[in-house]
Amino acid sequence: MSLAPYDILPTPYGGRGAFARRFIPKGSPVLLCSGPYATVIFWKFRREVCATCFAYAFESGKRKWSIKLGENSRGAGGVWFCSEECKDAFVQDYELVAGQGIGWWGEINGAFERMLLQMGKDVKPTVDPLEDITAADVTAEFIEKTWLAAEQSPPGRGWTEELSEYELDTARFVLDGLVHKVMEEANPAFPSLDRVVVGAEGYCVSAGRWADLMELQDNELAMIKVKPYTLASRIRLYRFLRHLVASLATRKNVMRSGSATPEGTSMPLIRIADRLKSVLSTSLAARALMARDHGNVFGIWDMASEEEGSEMLGWAAYVSGSYFNHDCSPNLKKDRVGRAIQFRALRDILPGEEMCISYIDEDCPDPKERSRQLEQDWFFACCCSKCKRQLTHE
Ligand SMILES: C[S@@+](CC[C@H](N)C(=O)[O-])C[C@H]1O[C@@H](n2cnc3c(N)ncnc32)[C@H](O)[C@@H]1O
């Protein structure tokens, strides 16, 4: 029997949601997700935000964090932390075999940075017809054919095409998700994957597994209909990641990080690089992750109050937290607690009641304006009872 105070069940308006199994008093902690499955800290904040607990250096009176993992040379990759404990926790999280280190992780991120150095050099002007599609062109069949064509064209040599900062951050998010997928396959006994406990914080879960992430509703078609240019962008990111992995495979014989094989190569890197290459040989996994990005991820915000104007530092996929649907009169609130995200009851919740957060500013009194925001930014038409009530009484 599940330890959660709610069940995940189909909703009358499609997809699934969380329904209270018992009476939940106001203020009770309902769920604590200890960490996300995939994360990205915006590149411009990489030195200011701890990669483990997301602490923002400015809030501690510092310009940046000084504890770093990775070499100092240009294009070597790197990641910053607020403390040695956070650095150790990061290594533990990515270590395939305890004590072997995460040299392979540095190599992959270094390769990413080297691709950035090549970007924009010797670019031959090309016209991508996908850039000009309109909502009328977008059908499930068209999207399918476009992805198929992308996976059938092999990764060329070198990468010079420019990607926007947002695209690069999305590529880092997707890469992090794929890395977790292949780590999970390489070591299915990874101890932190399925942790579930009930303690003072209520029902607590770990990041979950790829299969859990894939259970979430995807909104590929809905999003591309609203923003047709995202199809070209997603295909570009897929091609970029294939290039990245191809470049790893050709460098493997000169690597010395991680544990050495008799040939002097890095075993964990080869294992991960080969698995990444295989996972990107079709578009399935990268596409599925992108299809669940918008609509399921949570922004990582600094801790400043709303009046002070808080800043978004990145975004993260907290799988278990993503089962909560939106309601314009929510009964749950969420708070970030370091790397974790916690959900609490905003009021008493009755058995059988759906448990929802708000994805937007629910104080907006105009239901049409709220619907517009949800359709434009979240790609769905709101079916909550407040909207239904307000819209039918107009
Ligand atoms: C974070 S997920 C919530 C879990 C999702 N229902 C599932 O089964 O995976 C967000 C998606 O749920 C659906 N959704 C959430 N709140 C909704 C609402 N108030 N009305 C209609 N659909 C909603 C939309 O499809 C949205 O893209």
UniProtKB/TrEMBL annotation:
PROSITE patterns named among the record's database cross-references: SET
Stretches that traverse the bilayer: none
GO CC, alphabetical: nucleus
CDD domains: SET_SMYD
Family matches, as Pfam families: SET
Domain SET as annotated: residue spans: 1-360
Name assigned to this protein: SET domain-containing protein
Lineage: Eukaryota, Fungi, Dikarya, Basidiomycota, Agaricomycotina
